[in-house]
Amino acid sequence: MKFTLGPTAFGLALLASTPLMSAISFPPHAMAQQTATSLTVKNSSHPDSSIIAKQDILRKTLNNGLRVVIIKDSLAPVVTAQISYLVGSNQAPKGFPGTAHALEHMMFRGSQGLDKDQLAVIGAQLGGSYNAFTTENVTQYYYTAPAEDLNVILKIEALRMGGLSLNAADWDKERGAIEQEVSRDLSNPIYKYVSELQKLMFDGTPYEHDALGTRPSFDKTTVSLLRKFYETYYAPNNAILVITGDIDPNKAVEQVEKDFGSIPKKTIPELESFTLKPIKAKTLTYPTDFPTSLVTIAWRMPGEKSKNFAVADILSDVISSQRGALYGLVPQGKALMADFEYVPKGEVGFGVAIAAFPKGQDYKPILNEVNQILQTIREKGVSPELVEAAKRKEIAQLAFSANSITGLASSWSTALAFQGLNDPNEMAAAYQAVTPEQVNALAKEILNPDEAITAILTPEDSGKPISNKGYGGAESFASVPEKPVQLPDWAQQALNKLNIPKEAPKPSEMVLSNGIRLIVQPLNVSNTISVFGQIRQNPSLQEGKGKEGIAGITNDMFKYGTKTLDRLAFRKAVDDIAADISAGSDFSLAVLTPDFDRAMQLLADNELNPAFEQKFFDIVKQQAAQSLIGLYQSPGYHFNRAIAKAINPPNDPSLRQPDPALVKKLTLQDLNDFYKKSFRPDLTTIVIAGNITPEQAKASVEKYFGNWENIGPKPNLDMPTRPDSKSSFVHVPDKTAVQNSVALVESINLDVHHPDHYLLNLGNEVLSGGFAGRFYKDLRVKTGYVYNVNSDFGWSRTRGSYSITFGADPDKVSLARKAALKDLTAMQTSPVTDNELQLAKASLLRSIPLQQASVDGIAGQYLTYTDLGLPLNSAHIAAKNYYKASAAEVQKAFQTYVRPKDLAEIIKGPATPTP
């Protein structure tokens, strides 16, 4: 299983498989118009069939060396632009490992012709997502926005490439924010583990440090050092620009030429070579704030640019296969989860075998099991059948990249910038060429016990939460109006329009005879079909007294096969068609179009005919109880529990939770009773999107789900309304954290069906609308109190809530809280400015088309609306409400529903100074 580095690019993802464990987070000059070569995959059901729809691709290398790839994707009126500079932390000056990361931050602090305030306003008005991440070899900047705004995105990137501002005052402010980011990562035990792991794996090479950097190095970093780094490596001939979306490639490349063509190329220093030192086996230990214990065994592996990358990726897939011996520890009851993660990093990489076990148990038995499994693979090799299954799966996954405009851009950026390939097709060819003999040879070389780095990660008790009545509410602050930002003419002309976006194409919608609501969205962007299902449930209202936890156990039991296919036979059937299938109260499948019928048959068999065997029930029940015991002692649990208690009355159904002792007493009959009553077609919505017609989709659902029957009366799943919450304070100790996680929360006497919730959403955009939001400006840009700050209204059919969240060092918490409350109170004491209102409206209105920019996004939106009891065109309804809202109406809504003095404060981490 390859772990792809995300926006932070500094960690290892430990993907927990049990429902009670959360994921733990560890990134020639002539123009050529071409059509992508269609990828093919050979398997039993459709040999040599095309799995990728042909795409219009335009490539060009400008005279200054900038490589440009433009791919048209008509999924939605959206565009993504990703510019990857072929420089990262590996090129940082000695003693300054975070230089590339620091410069990434400063790229958002303005450039010649576009200051930081203008950049923040433009980013908000675009309504899209924009950010960046730094790795050892690549620093990438990306924008996703309405397709009509591609020219604005390109202008921004060209100005940043051509001349960054880089002044000392801005670096002083940004230094505070980036040090908060360091504190956040230092509070993550996995980050600490990976940092030491890299040092041991790659000692004496540029890879011995991750791309984050350290506080001491940032304290020493100067603007002159950053400028030298920028002027050395930020050049068109050291960058790759990938553009995807519903655009005209020829017009797009003309704009690229206009904006980037005059930027001069530079002489880029050659990378220094390095030699890897031998590794000696070692065992590490770490305290954590996790609910379970972990054992990990790591080995050095090839990097993304290695000739053996595809072989290594297939090896990792085979080791982590649910049909493999490592995962088999879970259904045997020997591990709570088991997985293998592969983290490629340019020229090098590492792989980690992971197993979780209950807190307090001895690690030696599970460690011995994992070691034995991996050494058996090393000595005897892997199953050729699993190798072929992994190859089919990896190649098929490339077909799904077109199902997301951003995903398509990332697929190409990864191939070109990270892997040094010509296009993703080369990666498919590399996977196709992998043989079992190559996989076995690499396993024998890599899985050497004399070179394994073992780590034991053990939960540490941090103490009980400390509560009191709170700080007495918000201070009273006057609002300080800010001077409106004047945009450059090119941005003003492009963004001064405020329009209600065109309503998205309506899907086909029907209700089948048994009550299933079927929504079908035909899409012709790839030769794939995706199915997303949701059974509306509310365990807080559906689990009987003393039966708490049965919903989670029921969901976990679906992975143990069906009455017709046992666990391994079912996984083999799924592997044979290179599909992804999951069942439960939320179910899904993703499959190539030719195999849709077989995939639907398997999904329905899993969903409607689960095995529910006693031997697996006993194992899952025991694992659930063991996980709960550890969970209830973890700081993360106490933090989330304190938030829930702060906004709900004492006997609220949402506060029900399983008792480990009672979980152990649950019976298979309890599970079957819950399944029969709670898994109902008349509470089920199925969304099918992809290369399919509504008629075909309906026929398939009726064929495989049509005999599903409702048992008993339809339950009421709506939570009761609740009284206003009151101010309180809870501090949750966390010995592993150096930074505090802070949440300010309260209930809101409003639900999603009341039109005033649109006014609160609009006002929240003023507060938390990215770089231009009041919170971001006051808590990060101006002061450096925090790295991230966010606020959000949560809505359900019957309830509402409000939260402000941020991370800060202990001595910054009180300052950040006061600044946030100042901004929140100002929303009530005076109307937002015309400029702020216009900006918030533009951001929300322009963001609406982005919700249709991926198949997952389309389906997720429909399922959310269904769950909330809203019409499927709710995005268009919201747009009309945002468009007509006034500043006075927003102010009144905040006066009516938001209560700053009632905000509860929950802090997790070190003790904070008394405010």
CATH class of the largest domain: Alpha Beta
**Percentage of residues in strands:** 15-25%
Number of DSSP helices? Answer: 31
- Report how far the terminal alpha carbons are from each other: 47 Å
Q: Work out the helicity level.
A: 25-40%
Catalogue the unreliable spans.
1-53, 471-481
- How many domain units? 4
Count of DSSP strands: 28
Proper CATH architecture of the largest domain: 2-Layer Sandwich
Largest sheet: 7 strands, mixed
CATH superfamily of the largest domain: Metalloenzyme, LuxS/M16 peptidase-like
- The SS-based structural class is alpha+beta
Round the Cα radius of gyration to an integer and report it: 27 Å
Mean pLDDT, all residues: 90
Strand order of the largest sheet: 1-4-5-11-6-10-9
Q: What features would you describe in this structure?
A:
- With 915 residues, the chain is α+β, with helices and mostly antiparallel strands.
- It folds into four domains: 55-260, 2-Layer Sandwich (Cytochrome Bc1 Complex, Chain A, domain 1), CATH 3.30.830; 282-459, Cytochrome Bc1 Complex, Chain A, domain 1 (2-Layer Sandwich); 466-493 and 722-909, Cytochrome Bc1 Complex, Chain A, domain 1 (2-Layer Sandwich), CATH 3.30.830; 508-634 and 641-705, 2-Layer Sandwich (Cytochrome Bc1 Complex, Chain A, domain 1), CATH 3.30.830.
- It is built from 31 helices and 28 strands.
- The strands form six sheets. Strands 1-4-5-11-6-10-9 form a seven-stranded mixed β-sheet, with helices on both faces. The protein has a six-stranded mixed β-sheet with strand order 17-24-28-25-27-26, with helices on both faces. Strands 18-19-23-20-22-21 form a six-stranded mixed β-sheet, sandwiched between helices.
- Strand 2 and strand 3 form a beta hairpin.
- Helix 2 crosses helix 28 (834-847), helix 10 (364-380) packs across helix 14 (436-446) and helix 25 (756-768) packs across helix 31.
- The radius of gyration is 27 Å and the shape is globular.
- The protein starts with 31 loop residues before the first strand and ends in a 6-residue tail after the last strand.
- 53% of the residues are buried.
- Residues 1-53 and 471-481 have low confidence and may be disordered.
